[in-house]
Here is the input.
Amino acid sequence: MKKYSDLEYLKLSKGKKRLYKLQSFFCAIPQKILALFLGLWNIIKGCCLKVRDEALDIYSTFVHGDWKTKVSFLVMGFGCLARGQILRGLLFLLFEVVFIGYMFIAGGYWLSMLPSLGKVGPSEEYNVIFDTYVTTYNDNSFKILLYGVLTIFFIIAFVYTWRLNVKQNKLAEQILSSGKKLRSGKDDLKSLVDDQFHKTLLSLPLIGILVFTVLPIVFMILVAFTNYDGTHDGYYNNLFTWVGLTNFNTMLSWTANTGAGTQSYAATFGEVLSWTLMWAFFATFSNYFLGMFVAMAINKKGIKLKKLWRTILVLTIAIPQFISLLYVSKMFAKNGIINGFLMSMGWIDEALPFWDKASWARITVIIINIWIGIPHLMLIATGILMNIPQDLYESARIDGANAWQQYSKITLPYMLFVTGPYLLTSFTGNMNNFNVIYLLTGGAPTNPAASSAAGTVGYTDLLITWLFKITTGAESQYYLASVVGILVFVVVSLISLVVYNVLPSIKNEEDFQ
Amino acid sequence: MKKFLAVLLSAIMVLSMAVTANASSLAGTYDITVWVAAEIVDLTKQQIDNYNKTNEHGIVFNATVEAVSEADAGTNMVTDVEAGGDLYCFAQDQFARLVQAGALAKLGVNAGKTVAEANAAGVVAAATSGDTLYAYPMTADNGYFMYYDKSVVAEDHIDSMEAIIADCEAAQKYFAFEMNTSAWYNASFFFATGCTSNWTTDDEGKFVSVRDTFNSPEGLIAVKGMKKLVDSPFHLSSSAADSFASNAAVLVTGMWAYSDIEKILGDNMGVTDLPSFEVDGTSYHLGSFNGCKLMGVKPQVDPVRAAALHQLAQYLTGEQCQMERFAERAWGPSNLNAQASDAVQANPGLVALNTQSPYSVPQGQIHGSWWDIAKVISDDVKAATDEAGLQAALDNYYNKIDALFALDTSALLFVGAWNGWNNADAEPTYYFQGASLTLDVPESDYMGGRIVNPGDWGTDKGFAQVVVGKELVKDLGADNPDNNIVFVEPGNYTITLTGSDITIVKN
Amino acid sequence: MTQNEMNQKTSGPVKQHMGLRASRMLSNSAIYVLLIAISIIWLIPFVCIVLQSFRVESTWQVGYVIPQQWGLDNYRNLFNTDFPRWYVNTFISALATAVLQTIIVLCMSYTLSRFRFKMRKPLMRFMLILGMFPGMLTMIILYRVLKDLGLTQQNSVPGLILVYVASSGMGYYVSKGFFDTIPKSLDEAARVDGATRFQVLKKIILPLSKPIVIYTILTAFMAPWGDFVFARYIAFGSSAGSNVAVGLYNWLNKDQIAKYYTTFCAGGVMVAIPVTVLFMCLQKYYVEGVTGGAVKG
Here is the structure.
């Protein structure tokens, strides 16, 4: 495509400007992908170089260091202790003792079992005396995988700490040789509330995230490479083991869902994904515009009882969804209150199939989601609308702009600019909106063509509810759920990546400060 | 201590070999968890108290009785056996899944004998996988029949589905019959026309073969009947008792809803067997599943505790406790003596269930995925516009059953009738996996029947002729273009598959 | 209301034609009609639930809304079940989560907003990526970890609190957005005067952060009341370890719904009351928090 200079660009008509922007975005995609790969390559290269530098540094520390430093290579914290930094030295030493103790007592076992995920399954024996069967449980694949991963985490932490210990020695030698004093334990503690304050603040949240988010995610990714399911639960019936990429093959081998034919997971995934995206789009933007509209209506001058209107709307946020949504779901049932009312009024002869037909159910969930979502948007929009400088409207009015022009020229651009990041998070949030779908329809109506042995799939099922069905379905195929989870991650991250590259207001967080 | 004692005891006793178990060795206090349906929590507490007072072994159970619905119990047990209830109740359809998950302890030899003698045969079969009894039957009433509102449905209409639908439409009231959400109910139409889906399991609860005739001319009649129902604007897919409170006039459900419906409908409540539907001038009486609820014991590591728990399970599922549950909650007993009692014989709900029973099919072991596969038939049927669409619904079903076994590449598929392939009459499909199968091979002009590996479906790999007692002969000749095993003589054969070897013996 | 007055003041001097005023009257009455319609739609489900909870003539779902007989039987009935226990469980976990989660989130967001350290950007990016994994998946493993710690079934309350709180650091976006709006020059001035970082946080930032603190407390407090998926998994069949959502949800099981439907409604009202009241009282801060922080992501 032809590139315009700034001057040429400004001369273009409005439509052409838009077209040009769109074109440049799509033309830039190959470059961006290339840049991504280049970036990845640079990261890998950087890592290799870093490792080399570190190794060289460790070597030179050892060669040039004094005896205290040399002993520290084996006994962590020795250098610190010998140089009077008791607190640091003790911490290092304690960590080493704990690590070695753990590796001897348990870590070694978990690590050695990790490649096989266990060898001996449970066995059953008949006890003649009591006329009963007794089960003996042996290896536990689940624990082996879990604690194996934990042990690897621990080893990484140890290597890092060891490296820190070596660095400390080098630093201490340098400081001492330049004639300065080393920091005491008291100084260290003091710095924790001052220049190292961020470490203090972050330690607790990060440990929590590491144990309760990172570890489970790593574990679940690994499950995708095993045959962990209801009949291979790793302890009570059969052990599970590594199966390589088999599950990805099963998941990704594509044949179309013809209805009468066998169904492939790839095609089912495609169908569920397309509805998930459709849902996320409509759910996000219907809420966005209607919420903004309601907020503007309430904020309009001359409208009284603003607080009352807001309070009524906000009730949907305050009342737990499992109560309100379950109730609403029953209201729309074939024999529910709404159909009953319409029939008794004689407006319809037979019940409206709110939950029984695919398109009806899809539209109904989107509409009910508006009921859930408008209040959130109304609150956000209220705040933002108040922040728009009133003189903008004033001057627009003097220039003779009508209400629509004021809206499209002032309100909307301002809102879009400020809420860009919010739109993205609410889009991905809606993709994973488990509650609304699960409580309203549970995925119904069923899509017979896409349903398979792994469980039924419905027309309103999102990826996240499908995933839930796979895990709790008849076969409890955790490995498959894990593969789906990874694919969900890929989809969400791709969308975010694209949007992040297009939206200006996310990239420059400092601009706002 | 207890465990040590047990080891000691077993050492001594195995040596002497002649001494029988000393029951007093079970004496002690046990902390246990029991999972039962919410409505019998209090009753079960009482029954355990009774057991504590009356048992002769000196066993005292310190039991926590939790309300866990039968459906949840199965899922929970599969998720984590260890955290599950020591004793738990579940509906029969969960059985194979639980055996496979290692969540059920086998019954001892003596206990097995006692239970098998005391309970109805169909119920015992439901608790059996391979040749082993894995659970204690609690009820035999897990079937369904029809409740109706006498003020809406005329007494002389209750035998015809079409008449009932007409009554409902006229009154703008619903005919509630769960279809697209449960295969347990929608199979009713297939059983009406004589279709079957028979599955067999091995000792580990693994499914080894199925003989399924849903995809057949009879099946087509069944879906035509089903279409009549689901096309009615006043059909409601529900089996919940309170449908009657929100505009239903007919409900197909089971005994568990009896007391609730009685409260809702009062004198207007009618109960009867399921009606018949008519296709092409022939009338078919709707069939049903005839299942049961079971009580399982979680596998234990300690033989003493295990033995004590089995004692309790046997007590809780014995005649006395079953009668108590019947008296209090109208749960239909599985115990033969209890079934024969006058009170049970007189219960209107159980009478309706009995009237239905000639048309019912004992719910044997069914693959867990079948429920998901079969329940969507009704959605397909509703969407179909012509006979081809109905046939497509059956094909869809058939292909999924097919895929269920195709996932296991060690399985073999036997397709078509032996020596009867391509005959006009539809014949069953055999799926076959690591076990043996006995077949009657009919006399036929057409030398058909074929044996294929799932992966080879539709390919042409040469032929195999089986002469009784001899090896498979491949490359038979070009005149038979199929992957066939041809039996030269008709008769009854046993085919055994071990690894990749097939042995075929004429009986 | 202040907004309204301000609007009137600014528009005062502008000359308005009679036609304009009339059209405004017209559009305002259209808006009133709309708002009333919206309010009715929004309130119907809640009104229905409340009405059902006072119905005593039957306990199952019915096709009409207004009870034929009114009474408090359903509320009384709640006390014959494990509901009080569930309520206490939920209340404890909501309270503990509110306090602990607020501390964690504030630590996280304050640090990421105010400090510039080497790992800051990679850390934020890492957490962004982590957040894209569907959390549903990790339920199984979290359950096993908690089980190994002995925090499931009857002891599920501390277990739930632990999980709610532990991963809450990921939700720092809103409050970080809020802190970003507090001028940095305030901190710098204090630092020049010799205050430590901790003193800056205590003396300067916290007093300014009332809206976001209340917003965080409120959202953290509300979440446990509605959790029925994870809490159900952790309670694993134990009634003593259930929260209200799990307990009430079980009442809607096929075999229980006919007996417990109106009791469910009463339970729902009992759950909604504290959350709603709290929400109503603190709505102002919620709005400030959400608009100050959320829009910045």
Q: What stands out?
A: The CA atoms of residues 288 and 360 of chain B lie 5 Å apart. Chain B touches chain A through 65 residues (CB under 8 Å). Chain B has three domains: 25-136+291-337, 142-199+215-290+363-370, 408-506.
